[in-house]
Amino acid sequence: VDMGVKLLCLFLASALVAYYIYTPIPEDFEEPWKVMLIMAGFRAVGHLSEVADQLGLMHYMEALMLITAAEYIAPTSDENVTVTDTEFSNVAVRLFLPRKQSDGLRRAVVYFHGGGWCLGQAGMKSYDHLTRWTSNRLNAVVVSVNYRLAPKYHFPIQFEDVYSVMKFFLQSSILSQYGVDPDRVCVAGDSAGGNLAAAVAQQLLKDSEVKTKLKAQALLYPALQTLDLNLPSYQENENKPILPRSLMVKFWSEYFTSDPSLREAMASNTHVPVESSHLFQFVNWSNLLPKELKKDHVYTSPTYGSSELAQKYPGFLDPRAAPLLVSDDQLRRLPLTYVLTCEHDVLRDDGVMYARRLRAAGVSVTHDHAKDAFHGAMMFVSGPTKLAVGHRLLNRYIEWLNENL
């Protein structure tokens, strides 16, 4: 009997491991087994977080935040870069200052990490690697911002934190203190950080107190609109690596409130009230996506929801949270732009539509579309989970900065 029980347990354990690890992977992915293992890890943490949440042990996002904590590394200087944790305008930042001599003033990048406005921090191994590499390769000052996170803080706190850091840094006295050329400053970010970077670049154009203009913005697979969570990319990539649709809906709704009614309305794509119908022109994918991304999807008019949600949580209709919702006129004066999108990503169409609208408004845009990549691929550039595709995307981004900043 004992042997039979052991065999049964072994069989069940193997089945569970196989279920976790084996996921159909798109054919064009390099290193499919590595991707499967990474996905299995993320899925396991996601499931454990759900269990913790349902048992009332901790909020779903706080459980996920344990990944962030496990990945943390202290600020460590090396032969190329001096790294310190400090504060700009009462917001925590990690500062990277190159040690190499500079012929003149340096370039600077202000970076906002991703994590759905709920997770992540500048001190995570992957972000520390990315920002250190940027500083070292470009001989640039890099400011990586630790804005406050949901569920403890909701919109507009995250935006206000990054904006106040940007505004503080752009003062001429601060730029000269760090030897930064005021004509060569870039704002950058990935995912939710790309959302914040796009919003900051737009807000700076309206701010008469800021005299220094940004030279560039770099948006890495950014989230840019809250209106239509059923774009072709949301449908096709509903269960793709790292960022399934259900998690993106959780991130979006949690950015504004912990009230589950917004999440439920967003999940069924019925959260926008009829009085905001004029905004849909800015995210109408039937006009804004190229043929190869429309495929055989058919555009259907939105199903409107109650006005009550939008009155309670107006943030989701605010362009500071959804940068695609501004008129073409407000896009005209934006700086030189880099947009990275990944084929297998729910956020793909957000970036594609923004690149298209910016171009139409006369902004100079480089749009890199990675056909063999998934959301967050650039985070996997070091250690055992290093992916060749992550390395390639990181190099492309650094090259663009080097040529354009």
UniProtKB/TrEMBL annotation:
Domain Alpha/beta hydrolase fold-3: 109-268, 315-378
An example Gene Ontology CC term for this record: membrane
Gene3D superfamilies membership: alpha/beta hydrolase
Record-annotated active site: 191, 345, 375
UniProt keyword Transferase, yes or no: no
Keyword annotations of the record: Disulfide bond, Hydrolase, Membrane, Transmembrane, Transmembrane helix
GO MF annotations, alphabetized: carboxylic ester hydrolase activity
Residue ranges of the TM segments: 7-25
Keyword Disulfide bond assigned: yes
Domain of life per record: Eukaryota
InterPro entries reported in the protein's UniProt record: AB_hydrolase_3, AB_hydrolase_fold, Arylacetamide_deacetylase, GDXG_lipolytic_enzyme, Lipase_GDXG_put_SER_AS
Stated family: Belongs to the 'GDXG' lipolytic enzyme family.
Protein name in UniProt: AAAD deacetylase
Organism: Cochlearius cochlearius
Gene field: Aadac
